[in-house]
Design brief:
Number of domains: 4
CATH superfamily of the largest domain: Resolvase, N-terminal catalytic domain
Number of helices: 13
Structural class: alpha/beta
CATH architecture of the largest domain: 3-Layer(aba) Sandwich
Distance between the termini: 90 Å
CATH class of the largest domain: Alpha Beta
Helix content: 40-55%
Shape: extended
Strand order of the largest sheet: 3-1-5-6-7
Number of strands: 14
Largest sheet: 5 strands, mixed
Radius of gyration: 32 Å
Length: 404
């Protein structure tokens, strides 16, 4: 059976185009995958005469469709679907993708659920690679495209599953090789280990920097941020040593010469540059700092309403953004530059003091007494009601006894 669907069938109805692009790993950026998808989708949209709506950032980099990571709220596609649910997407609309495997590589039931969810929301799905369209109306009149989509999604999941099994097997073979004292992939070794000679050797010029970081943590009780600043001051601005790198270095068991497998197994794979006492002492210092909140105070004003405030327009959280006197409450959709009817922001340094002042004017004793009196009145009313009910039942019993 041949399905012959042309783009003319939706040209007169569809106006707005939302083009989604995705690559599974950041390494694929080197191959120009995103750039190619952007160029091809823009050309296809122009060819069809649609209006490309770029109000949403619809690009996911390093988000796996096999594990459905691109459907998280913070991912581009997940955020777009939330916007669809809240009526923030212009209609009629087309979600333009290179092929259906960009939308999902999950199991067929999960992929089909996402596919149907988008169409039930009134969004047409278009794949410019094979010029296919999928929408609720066309599938209800002709289920052929649905059969094609199921076949494509099954194949995409099968390809990802086979690839996943091969990768897992490859890593397992490498783990066995490392256990026996062999050399593993270069990526498992930290930057202070060199394996070019066929065996792991310490690069002392880099190892000394790691030891210095641990010394600043233990001997000077410095935070990650302070350690990063101190390292640049000591070694010069050219040294790339950020807060994230400091945290990862201090937390990494690689300083003990340990390679941690994907199954969280520890294998002694290369020379240690620190002893266990120093490593675990640093961990205890970090834990102590987190409990006592040692370090420079945050520049961001304390948010009294964290996880409690939501936008009345789009329903997304209202977050504390900015720093210092510029800190304000702002809808998360607005922060992500997504469409939301609530564009205004509330300055924290003006709102919270007024709120605290208003609370201070409340007579707490009177409020508690009032609450207590209300509760007492409610209980008294309930008791009186039960007393009347009891008296009524007692009268009925007395009347019944008169007949005997």
């Amino acid at each position: 059976m041949t399905i012959n669907i042309t783009m003319d069938s939706i040209t007169t109805r569809t106006t707005y185009c939302y083009s989604y692009h995705r690559i599974s790993t950041k390494n694929q950026l080197k191959g120009g995958g995103i750039k190619r998808q952007l160029e091809e989708s823009a050309a296809f949209c122009e060819q069809q005469g649609w209006i490309m709506d770029t109000s949403f950032k619809l690009t996911d980099i390093g988000k796996s469709a096999y594990h459905s990571k691109h459907l998280d709220d913070r991912a581009a596609l997940g955020g777009f679907l939330n916007a669809v649910d809240h009526g923030q997407v212009k209609r009629p609309a087309v979600l333009l993708v290179e092929s259906l495997d960009r939308l999902s590589r999950a199991s067929i039931m999960d992929a089909l659920e996402l596919f149907i969810r988008i169409m039930n929301a009134g969004i047409t799905i278009c794949t410019y690679h094979d010029r296919m369209i999928y929408n609720k109306e066309s599938i209800q009149s002709n289920f052929g495209p649905l059969l094609i989509s199921i076949t494509i999604m099954c194949r995409a999941h099968e390809e990802s599953e086979i690839k996943s099994r091969r990768i897992k097997k490859s890593w397992a073979q490498m783990d066995d090789r490392v256990r026996e004292g062999g050399i593993g992939r270069e990526r498992i070794y930290p930057e202070w280990i060199d394996v070019s000679s066929g065996k792991p050797e310490v690069i002392e010029s880099k190892a000394v920097l790691v030891r210095e970081v641990f010394d600043l943590c233990i001997s000077h009780n410095m935070s990650y941020a302070d350690i990063s600043i101190a390292m640049k001051e000591r070694r010069g601005e050219k040294l790339k040593w950020c807060i994230t790198k400091t945290r990862r270095t201090i937390k990494s068991v690689k300083v003990l010469g340990i390679y941690e497998t994907r199954e969280k197994e520890h294998i002694k794979a290369f020379p240690a540059i620190l002893d266990e006492h120093t490593f675990y002492l640093a961990q205890s210092m970090v834990a102590k700092r987190q409990r006592t909140q040692v370090g420079r105070p945050s520049k961001r004003t304390l948010n009294f309403f964290k996880t409690m405030m939501f936008c009345a327009d789009c329903g997304r959280p209202v977050r504390n953004c900015g720093s210092g006197n510029a800190t304000s409450y702002l809808c998360y959709s607005t922060q992500l530059k997504m469409k939301c009817g609530q564009k205004s922001k509330l300055m924290v340094n003006k709102f919270q003091p007024i709120l605290l002042y208003a609370i201070s004017l409340v007579d707490k004793d009177d409020m508690l007494e009032s609450a207590s009196n209300q509760k007492k009145a409610k209980l008294t009313k309930a008791i009186n009601s039960k007393q009347v009910e009891l008296e009524d039942k007692q009268k009925r019993i007395d009347n019944t006894n008169r007949f005997f």
